[in-house]
Structures are given as structure tokens and as C-alpha cells.
Amino acid sequence: MKVNQAEIVISAVSKKQYPNDGFPEIALAGRSNVGKSSFINKMIQRKSLARTSSKPGKTQTLNFYKINESFFFVDVPGYGYAKVSKKEREAWGRMMEEYFQERETLRATVLLIDLRHPPTEDDIIMYDFLKHFDIPVLVVATKLDKVKKAKRDKHIKVVREALDLESEDHLVAFSAETGEGKDQAWRHLSEFIS
Ligand code: GDP
């Protein structure tokens, strides 16, 4: 995929603000610090369009990035902060449910998992939540460059097994540092938006 154009269209706090031009959407979800912003920036060849490492307690928004005037990346607020309040957690849950349950233009979700560690309980809940709504998932296992080559296959297997990945859902090992996995990720995502 050659990305010629990418811009943030809106940081939405409620569904009234979601774009309504009907373009297909790919959502991106993952634990805070997993490398989600780095993934988005690498995929669209921008240094810092997606903000990296947003702090907990800030307003949680769904960020819509319009790509090539033809589809959206929708950056979902990260989960798994130890310090968020119950109120914030509930607000996050409502926003997720509303979006994933109702959004007709949503085609698939990229679920980012840190390849260095086994998936967390939150990661597994997120995968099950997406499957509950029948949403196709592409698992992107991040920070590939941080895992020794000899150990990569083993780590990938741990991720697959912990999530109990369905056969139609693919996994791509990815590094925002080296760009490994980028073409493969685009190949899978292109199928959802074509
Ligand atoms: P986010 O909170 O999920 O958006 O995570 P960020 O994209 O801000 O990344 C969190 C930290 O991990 C930053 O310090 C990034 O530089 C680092 N990081 C993200 N992806 C990679 C990667 O593929 N390789 C390495 N070595 N570091 C990464």
C-alpha cells in the first residue's frame, strides 16, 4: 500500500462526532505502551501523526485518520493502565461497546500485542470482546526487534495460544524500528478495505 495522504479528521468524544462519509474503517486497539502509535506512524510513513504515549487521565478519544481519501484508521484509547479510576474505566468501556457494537463501516480491528511478553488478561478480554461482536482481527505482535531471532517463533506461538486465535484471524510480527512485517500487515488490511 502506498500512502499518499494521511490526516487526522477528528478526535471524537462521542458518536455524534464520528465521520459520516461511509468510508471503511480499521480500528486499532492495544494496551497502553504496546507500540500502537508507532505502528500507525510506520504504516502511514509519518514520523508523528499519531501521538505516542498519551498519558492516563487525559480525555479518551477515538482518533479518526483518513488515509488516501478512501478509508480510516481509528485509533482506540489504550487499555491496561494500572492507575485509571473506576469511573474512567467505565467510560472507556461504554465508548468501546458503542463503537464496536454499532459501527457499520468497521471492517476489522488490529489488536496489538507486545511480542516480548505473553498476552495479558486485558489482551485476552479484548480479543474475546472483538470476537463476541464477530469483528475480524489482525493480531500485530509488536517490538519484534526486541526478541532474539531464535526465540521469535516460540513467542509467536505463545501469543497465538494465549488468545486462542481463530483460524481466520492472522498474526503478523512487526517492528516499528526495522519495518519488518509492514508489507505483510498492509496485505492483510488491504483485503478488508477493498
Ligand atoms: P502506544 O502507547 O501503544 O501508542 O505506544 P508507543 O507507540 O508510544 O510506543 C511505546 C514505546 O515503545 C515507545 O518508547 C516506542 O519507541 C517503543 N516502541 C514501539 N514500537 C517499537 C518497536 O517496534 N521496537 C522497539 N524497539 N520499540 C518500540
TrEMBL record:
<dbReference type="GO" id="GO:0005525">
    <property type="term" value="F:GTP binding"/>
</dbReference>
<dbReference type="GO" id="GO:0000917">
    <property type="term" value="P:division septum assembly"/>
</dbReference>
<dbReference type="GO" id="GO:0005829">
    <property type="term" value="C:cytosol"/>
</dbReference>
<dbReference type="InterPro" id="IPR027417">
    <property type="entry name" value="P-loop_NTPase"/>
</dbReference>
<keyword id="KW-0342">GTP-binding</keyword>
<keyword id="KW-0131">Cell cycle</keyword>
<dbReference type="GO" id="GO:0046872">
    <property type="term" value="F:metal ion binding"/>
</dbReference>
<dbReference type="InterPro" id="IPR030393">
    <property type="entry name" value="G_ENGB_dom"/>
</dbReference>
<keyword id="KW-0479">Metal-binding</keyword>
<dbReference type="InterPro" id="IPR019987">
    <property type="entry name" value="GTP-bd_ribosome_bio_YsxC"/>
</dbReference>
<protein>
    <recommendedName>
        <fullName>Probable GTP-binding protein EngB</fullName>
    </recommendedName>
</protein>
<dbReference type="InterPro" id="IPR005225">
    <property type="entry name" value="Small_GTP-bd"/>
</dbReference>
<keyword id="KW-0460">Magnesium</keyword>
<keyword id="KW-0547">Nucleotide-binding</keyword>
<dbReference type="Pfam" id="PF01926">
    <property type="entry name" value="MMR_HSR1"/>
</dbReference>
<keyword id="KW-0717">Septation</keyword>
<dbReference type="InterPro" id="IPR006073">
    <property type="entry name" value="GTP-bd"/>
</dbReference>
<comment type="function">
    <text>Necessary for normal cell division and for the maintenance of normal septation.</text>
</comment>
<keyword id="KW-0132">Cell division</keyword>
<comment type="similarity">
    <text>Belongs to the TRAFAC class TrmE-Era-EngA-EngB-Septin-like GTPase superfamily. EngB GTPase family.</text>
</comment>
<feature type="domain" description="EngB-type G">
    <location>
        <begin position="22"/>
        <end position="194"/>
    </location>
</feature>
